Amino acid sequence: MKIGINGFGRIGRLVFRALWGRPGIQLVHVNDMAGTAATAAHLLEFDSVHGRWQQQLSASVDDPSGFKVADQRISYSQEKEPTAVPWQGAGVDLVLECSGKFKTAETLGPYFEQIDIKRVIVACPVKGAIAGEEALNIVYGINHQLYEPARHRLITAASCTTNCLAPIVKVIQENFGIKHGSITTLHDVTNTQVVVDGFKSDLRRAC
Predict the structure, then answer these.
(1) CA 184 to CA 50: how far, in whole Å?
(2) How far apart are CA 151 and CA 141, in angstroms?
(3) Mean pLDDT of 100-110
(4) Which pLDDT score is estimated for 115?
(5) What does DSSP say about strands 119-122 and 94-97: parallel, antiparallel, or unpaired?
């Protein structure tokens, strides 16, 4: 299976590392409008949290079209819209949508206009339906049995909060029952947050 990644931030880069070298999987294309192929390769190799990736990476500022991991070339693009990305040219079967910018079935629908793309997995919850079929938000161990390969083309891993909460709630509900509940969550800093006060449309992220 050939995989392309749209959005090469925290999730995109870490999933790249996690999938690299797995049997039956080939990472072939990355798209991120935020930076060049050389910058993408640098950020992939050096991670302040997870440490240096023990793979040989090479890239050139003179070649914006890709970078190499070991002896394999990964093609690269900087397109704003997923439909402008050369997925088909790279032979992509499955796209990992990690940009955080496309969160509805309506905005993700154009992916499926490219006939070679069989699945899109989104790194955040998705609302809405494509061709009458709701996006399937999966929390493994909770509802993964609902996945039907012939039916579900748009899949997500739900949200970080849901993945933390749902397994605990499932155990309590099945063994004791729940009448009422409330939660408080603490979230790690994300790429969209600032470390000093700044202008943001979402005021919670402004300071």
Answers:
(1) 27
(2) 20
(3) 88
(4) 67
(5) parallel
* 60-91 residue pLDDT tens: 888 889 999 998 999 999 999 988 999 989 99
Q: 117 with 95: CB under 8 angstroms?
A: yes
Positions marked active-site: 160
The CA-to-CA distance between both ends of the chain, in Å, stands at 42
Of the candidates 103, 58, 110, the one whose C-alpha atom is nearest the C-alpha of residue 81 is 110
Greater model confidence, 194 or 106: 106
- Find, among 9, 57, 11, 24, the residue nearest to 157 by Cα: 11
Q: Is 62 buried (19+), middle (13-18) or exposed (0-12) by CB count in 10 A?
A: exposed
Q: State the average pLDDT for the chain.
A: 90
Which two three-digit tokens encode residue 163? 């993945």
